[in-house]
Design a protein that fits this description.
heterodimer; A: mainly alpha; MetI-like fold; 13 helices; globular; B: mainly alpha; two-stranded antiparallel sheet; 75% helix
Chain lengths: 309, 285
């Protein structure tokens, strides 16, 4: 910080300097305590993942190095979890990106109507995902659910949504889309509206075709926003728990055993602490790679937002 | 770009109508259900014409469910109270912890600061169960299991990164010259922080606080793992309620409406800041 132009006594300068030096540490001490509070259980989890640790069989407790991980290689349930999680993530983020981009483009022009639409579209995003799942559960109930009735009208009489192994994943994906599409929409809309106008004006003057404008101007300029929004969603989606758990608890069968649901059941139902921790470590590894990429992009976007301010 | 053909206008309007139906219909329909008795809910074909009743809300507020099988005591209102307690105290704690730290990170470059900021950020994106499951065992050992304090502590995982990064951005946007001038006038750093920096970043702090409140309120998994029935917020309570009440669909709908209303109202009120909050300060609305 700048030296003070007023001339205090030598002693006062000295004490201000030492306060100045420790002040940032003092201010961030409480936040640091939270940080430590997270890091300790994290390392405990790493430790658990190397143990044979079953709460119902305490006698079996033992350090087994990476056996939990090695067992995953030949474990069908593990590969099912990986496959379902990937499928869920790709489907949700892909569809949400397309839909969110479409809506953002429709609402691009600032007008009272467009702004009102973009505000009400936020409501699903602000609904707790667990509650959203319950809402859709009520709507897809086979006895009285309005959606069951509607698909019945178009001839799909025995359509059982989340309780049918064939349609369970699609139903949960639909709920995810309902909740999270507005997230992508709102970020891309903000991105679109912050783009410089000159390239578009120049293109309009030259009579450039609109598909060219979209693919060669809009999309490339919007790319940082698209990447940040998608990575954000990828990170959340691969860890999805609330929607899946509230809707089907991972069922029917193992059709919706995404990472965190599987780990939850492993811990509480089978009391297999070691295996549950190892499963979560695998997920952590995936999210850690993704979040490293994400944070890089996010920082760049943040710098840009600050620069424009 | 302005000379759009009428066909295009119609298509655009049609698309927007479909989008609005898809995103608004579930909220509308659950709201309708919450004012219906089981008889009108179970009608086929479903209809939006019915005689509205407040009996579902009444049953929830009185805590007694009346069904064909008899009456059942439910604690839904205490779930609602738990949500208020947990979310409010979590946000207050996160503001007390986060705002000074955000100020320090914005004004001074120091390694520990960057470490804290990025550790909290990266745990924002780590699987919550990874930390929660060991914590549930640790909490049992140190006596924090099933306490508000333990839960509020863990809720910092949601609230603190949000507040830290958004408020840091607001502090960075304020020129330090204003603070220097105030300091030169003979005021101490504490007064400078409280009387100059915090008020200038006020809107950002308020917005971050409201958003953190929404995210804490909407959280499900923390309390599912760390809280027993009498400490559970509405998100977990509503799920338990579905299992307990069985076929009282109108009451389930009313419980969902009561649980979701606070966040929706806050979201509408704070919508100007949502873009910035949702992107943790990376995109400005």
């Amino acid at each position: 910080m700048n030296p003070s132009p007023s001339r205090p006594s030598a002693q006062r300068t000295k004490s201000t300097i030492s306060i100045k030096r420790i002040m940032p540490y003092l201010l961030s001490l409480p936040a640091l305590s939270i940080c430590v509070g997270i890091i300790i259980p994290f390392f405990v989890a790493v430790w658990y993942s190397t143990l044979r640790y079953r709460m119902n069989l305490p006698a079996m407790w033992g350090f087994i190095w990476f056996d939990n991980y090695i067992q995953f290689l030949t474990d069908k349930a593990f590969w099912n979890t990986v496959w379902i999680s990937l499928l869920y993530t790709v489907l949700t983020v892909g569809l949400e990106l397309l839909l969110g981009l479409g809506i953002a483009l429709l609402l691009r022009k600032r007008s009272t109507f467009n702004n009102a639409v973009s505000i009400v579209l936020l409501l699903p995003l602000m609904t707790a995902p667990a509650l959203a799942a319950l809402m859709w559960k009520l709507m897809t109930n086979p006895n009285f659910g309005i959606l069951s009735y509607i698909v019945g009208l178009i001839g799909l009489t025995d359509f059982r949504w989340a309780s049918d192994p064939k349609t369970a994943l699609l139903t949960v994906v639909l709920v995810d889309i309902w909740v999270y599409t507005p997230f992508i929409m709102i970020l891309l809309l903000a991105g679109l509206r912050s783009l410089p106008q000159q390239p578009f004006e120049a293109a309009a003057l030259d009579g450039v075709p609109r598909s060219f404008v979209f693919f060669r101007i809009t999309l490339p300029m919007l790319m940082p926003y698209i990447i940040t929004a998608s990575l954000f969603r990828l990170l959340d989606s691969i860890q999805q728990f609330d929607v899946v758990y509230a809707m089907t608890q991972g069922g029917p069968g193992d059709k919706l055993m995404v990472f965190q649901v599987q780990a939850y059941l492993e811990f509480f139902q089978y009391t297999n602490v070691g295996r549950s921790a190892a499963l979560l470590m695998v997920l952590w590894l995936i999210t850690n790679i993704l979040s490293t990429i994400f944070i890089k992009n996010w920082l760049r976007l943040r710098e840009r937002a600050r620069g424009h301010a | 770009m302005d000379n759009v053909s009428p066909i295009e206008k119609v298509l655009k309007l049609a698309a927007l109508t479909l989008i609005l139906i898809f995103f608004m219909f579930p909220i509308f329909w659950i709201l309708l259900m919450s004012f219906q008795t089981n008889e009108t809910i179970l009608r086929i074909p479903p209809s939006i014409v019915f005689e509205p009743t407040l009996s579902n809300y009444e049953a929830l507020i009185r805590g007694k469910l009346v069904s064909t099988a008899g009456t059942l005591d439910i604690a839904f209102m205490s779930n609602l109270l738990n949500s208020v307690i947990l979310s409010t105290s979590s946000v207050i704690l996160a503001l007390l912890f986060g705002v000074p730290a955000a100020y320090a990170f914005a004004r001074y470059k120091f390694k520990l600061g960057e470490f804290i900021a990025f550790t909290l950020l990266s745990f924002r994106f780590a699987p919550p169960l990874l930390v929660l499951l060991p914590l549930s065992l640790i909490f049992q050992k140190i006596g924090l299991a099933d306490t508000y304090i333990g839960l509020v502590w863990v809720y910092q995982l949601i609230a603190l990164p949000l507040i830290l990064w958004i408020v840091r951005g607001y502090f960075e946007d304020i020129s330090p010259d204003i603070e220097h001038a105030y300091r030169i006038a003979g005021h101490g750093w504490r007064k400078t922080f409280l009387k100059v920096a915090v008020p200038l970043a006020g809107p950002g702090i308020a917005a971050a606080g409201l958003l953190a409140f929404i995210f804490c309120w909407n959280n499900f998994v923390f309390a599912l793992i760390l809280a027993s029935a009498d400490k559970q917020p509405v998100t977990v309570g509503a799920l338990a309620f579905v299992t307990a009440s069985g076929i009282q669909y109108g009451q389930i709908a009313a419980a969902i409406v009561l649980s979701a209303t606070p966040t929706l109202v806050i979201a509408l009120y704070a919508q100007r800041y949502l873009v910035e909050g949702l992107s943790l300060g990376a995109v400005k609305g």
